[in-house]
Amino acid sequence: MSPEIITIIALAAMFVVATVLPVNMGALAFVAAFLVGTLALGMDTDSIIGAFPGDLFLILVGVTYLFAIAQNNGTVDLLVRSAVRLVGGRIAAIPWVMFAITALLTAVGALSPAAVAIIAPIALGFAARYGINPLLMGMMVVHGAQGGGFSPISIYGATVNGIVAGTDLPAGPLTLFLSSLLFNIGISVLLFFSLGGRSLIGRHARDHDEVHVGEHSDDAERLAVRGHGSSAYKAEEPGSGETPRGLRFDQIATLIGLLLLGVLSLGFDLDIGFVAITVAVVLAVLSPKAQKGAINKISWSTVLLLGGMLTFVGVMEEAGTIEYVGDSVAGLGAPMLVALLLCYIGAIVSAFASSTAILGVTIPLAVPFLLAGDVSAVGMIAALSVASTIVDVSPFSTNGALVLANAKGVDPDRFYRQILAYSGVVVLIGPLVAWAVLAAPGWL
């Protein structure tokens, strides 16, 4: 059996095992890289370790460490409170505020599941209180997370841009970000008007007996949200006596740090990982108590996942699998059809497995095909990225499961069927639309 086929079988086996069993796919990938590399390819361990993505490791650790500090010191709470108070009692605006908050969190470095875990309980609590369709609210949160998920300083964005930077393909970080954001906004507009959003227009929170929102600003603050840095957030209860606190020094410093991260990494082209971890360490020095436990909140499972998967991709490159797949795909003789098939493969697998892992595999596999120049590389990477992440609405994904778990006042079985039906529509139509809008026209 050829080395290329062995690596493909190993890759498929990893996805099956990680889907059936609660085993981190990154750990499986490290084992596969070691066994396949040494036994099938005759690689030494130094060569295998050399494929480890050290730059991406620094980005993952730095960005998630910084976000953990922001979560710990209440800066995330502050952003949520500020955004929700902008609603001013207008119920139709609440789903959009939830979309915007979640997009902001992922755009500045939160992992998509972490952002959804924080916002979904709040959003679905508002849905139950104000009579908003829970499917609408839950899916707005998920699409918000995906909309902001490809900013240049986000985890998804840094992953895709880092992979592309290591090839001869043209880079388009801003195009990738805006493609995902606008695509998810478009889906959310359709959702809003399809799932009862029109009936929310003109309704005000003061019309609901259980929520005491008046015309004065003091009453409007009842819409504030509080939390303690985890997914256990809840809407503030009327009469609780709690009012939003003023800005503290560490929160001001965190907001400045997040601003500096964007300016230095985007405006001055400094390494995102180094900038993020520098900002995080400065915040830790300025306020040691506020950052207590932040190291434990770094998403080590994601670090392991991407580290293992990209190390295995390095072994696949050594085996010639990337070129083998690229040549096989190119041999089909219909570049646009191939592009569409790649989008569907990414979407279908991602609906049941990790989107991060899918991005780490499918984009390198598509590189030889894109180098042929028959399809716009920037547009195709954007289409593949969007197709592989919009399906996170699936109840089998972490994001979809979080929405299902946090729904209030609904029949769980019926709500599960609704999410399943919606995710089926997204898997069926989403990749086709992403391909048709982003890849096929060739305008990106």
TrEMBL record:
Transmembrane segments: 6-36, 48-67, 87-107, 114-132, 176-196, 255-286, 298-316, 337-361, 381-407, 419-438
UniProt entry keywords in alphabetical sequence: Membrane, Transmembrane, Transmembrane helix, Transport
Transcription regulation keyword on record: no
Superkingdom assignment: Bacteria
Limits of the Citrate transporter-like domain: 270-433
Cellular compartment(s): Membrane
Assigned GO CC terms: membrane
Domain Dicarboxylate carrier MatC N-terminal: 1-149
Pfam families from the UniProt entry: CitMHS (PF03600), MatC_N (PF07158)
GO biological process, one term: transmembrane transport
Membrane topology of this protein: Multi-pass membrane protein
Family matches, as InterPro entries: Cit_transptr-like_dom, CitT-rel, MatC_N
Designated name of the protein: Transporter, UIT1 family
